[in-house]
Amino acid sequence: xxxxxxxxxxxxxxxxxxxxxxxxxxxxxxxxxxxxxxxxxxxxxxxxxxxxxxxxxxxxxxxxxxxxxxxxxxxxxxxxxxxxxxxxxxxxxxxxxxxxxxxxxxxxxxxxxxxxxxxxxxxxxxxxxxxxxxxxxxxxxxxxxxxxxxxxxxxxxxxxxxxxxxxxxxxxxxxxxxxxxxxxxxxxxxxxxxxxxxxxxxxxxxxxxxxxxxxxxxxxxxxxxxxxxxxxxxxxxxxxxxxxxx
Length: 246
Known about the structure:
Elements (H helix, E strand, L loop, with lengths): L2 H15 L3 H19 L7 H12 L4 H12 L8 E8 L5 E8 L2 H14 L3 E2 L9 E10 L4 H11 L3 E5 L2 E6 L4 H10 L3 E11 L7 H15 L4 E6 L5 H4 L3
Antiparallel strand pairs: 1-2, 1-3, 2-8, 4-6, 4-7, 5-6
């Protein structure tokens, strides 16, 4: 399993168990609210909402919170007008980063993101400067996989593009439109889904050294600690020695 895929699994576990749990719940609720506001409250007819709910469930957001966020969004979210903004930048070791935020104040969010990059000795880029290095994909993380070959067959039969992993932890990659169907098929097959979400996946993951990797993960943590930031992706391969420290 690549260092990049392993980081996705570690990131999920950290967000679900440490002090960031409450902050993550707030971000997940906001994403559900915006999806319901833009596409309606029925997840069967609103793919963005279905994916937001699936991600929320993977992070153990309580059912009541999910329902409240849907109702609030469907009701128009009076007084709250969030929009999606995307930033691109260059991190330690030349790593490319894409940051997605949901904000009600573009100026505040832009200033915060720029400040975080500056403090890390890194810089933001122009729109399109690094986005071309990524593809939009569905990413499903599984735990407790007893037979990797069996999973590969099950994932392929369900319409997945690829599966990669070891030691019981696997990541299944899908076309964005197939995420829900593949997730449902794997769940029906008895596989334990740790997370399932639409995200950007790097076309290539260049190697960086241990010190650069530590600085990169510190930058990612700082960005994700911002209340407006929903997701941070990067294209560097994190060495196993650094992953073991997380």
